[in-house]
Amino acid sequence: MNLKQCIVLLGFSVLYWAASCQEIVDQPKNILLICIDDLRPELNSFGANYIKSPHIDGLAAMGRPFSHHYVNAPSCGPSRYTLLTGLYGTANNDAIFLRAKQMEKSAKNVPPSMPEWFRQNGYTTVSVGKVSHHPGGRGGTNWDSDSIPEMPNAWNRHLMPVGSWKTPKGAMHGLANGNIREVASEHDVLEAEEGPDEIYPDGLIVSEGLTQLEKLATGTKPFFLAIGLIKPHLPFGAPKKYLDLYNDIEFPPISHPEKPQGKTTWHESGEFMKYNRWGKDPREDQQFAMELRRHYAACVSYADKQVGDILNKLKETGADKNTIVVLWGDHGWHLGEHSIWGKHSLFEESLRSPLIIYDPEMNNEGVKSNAVVETLDIFPTLCDLTGLKIPGFTQGTSLAPILEYPQSPGHIAIAYTSSARTIRTEKYRFIQHENGEVELYDHSTKEKETQNIASTNVDLVVELRKRLVERRGN
Description:
There is one protein chain. The protein is of the alpha/beta class. It folds into two domains: 28-402, Alkaline Phosphatase, subunit A (3-Layer(aba) Sandwich); 419-474, no CATH class. Helices cover 33% and strands 17% of the residues. An eight-stranded mixed sheet has the order 6-3-8-1-10-13-2-14, with helices on both faces. A hairpin with a 3-residue loop joins strand 16 and strand 17. The longest helix is centred in the middle third of the chain and has 32 residues, at 286-317. The N and C termini lie far apart (80 Å). This is Iduronate-2-sulfatase. Residues 29-387 form the Sulfatase N-terminal domain. GO terms for molecular function: iduronate-2-sulfatase activity; metal ion binding.
């Protein structure tokens, strides 16, 4: 080959490289959504240096962690409804299934869900694991009926590997090696068995998620892939190697462990208490409480490892250069605060959860935002970041300005149960009960949500009640 031929060949190579780069730039961004069940913001990157969460911490270091993200309902079903629809909804745990029934009656009167919106706009949409309320997104006795989709028209594929647990319902509360919850009182509340990640359901979920990610990354269309992990949801079971991480770790004391006085959304931790606890009550037994906290932490580290596997595969495919990553916890979880073990309250511990958003084009990587934001904001944010039109029916606010400038202000956050609703501002939490009683807490004081100051701040109560009604309705 002579010099002239070499120059011509080099020129073609440069043009091909430039065209390839332009093609990558012109392609709509992909979306990778990672949903984690019952995950508190008790992570190293969120200030808990005793927790082993290196992979989530790595995502936080290159993305935007939101330290004051609040869910719109402290329960799986209604919280995921707001994520997936961009709308406030009922507090019913079957909120997404109820929406599907509305679609059967009159689909034109039900706005498209977030994955359906992206699907309508040219995306391939796939879910694996617990993204909607039921792992795999189906109803029926064992949550595996193709005739009862939880989210009609949302997914090109919605998958749930079940392995030895046999059904999605069996996997949801499954312990190691196919151990299914038949009777909750006979199902241990904690466990740590020797073995690989796949002896618990999340290992299988992520394995299938990696397979789907590889397929989508080699496709010709942009993708919206959602992978939902079950842990650290009850029961607290994870491979023993994750529990061993905490053998010599000292946990801080439980904050405000006392049962609150007066009218609150305190409850008796029924979801937790129905498991086999060997006659022990963590509200009275500090050693058992510590054991539970270690097992919860083990489940967090197990989930963190799955997040690492997902992110590593994304990078391996090369799709990381054009993929927005969102890590979202569907609500918080009390580990003894206010004498509660579980979620379902309107206290901070039930409503605050991790949110991390990574955009390959973002600046100020790793800078934490202290802005108050809510789950409802994710749908419009992803539209904004991918260049899609934000549908007019969504009720959230795009967080794109905060991704650009982490010091940007947030906004109020709303949440609700069947009998109360709350508004969280930067400084206050206000709770309105169905019977008219109210709670008001000042987060700028050391007492925070342990001292109800409503009776001495009547004007502020009136103002926050008005803002709550304006945002959520009567």
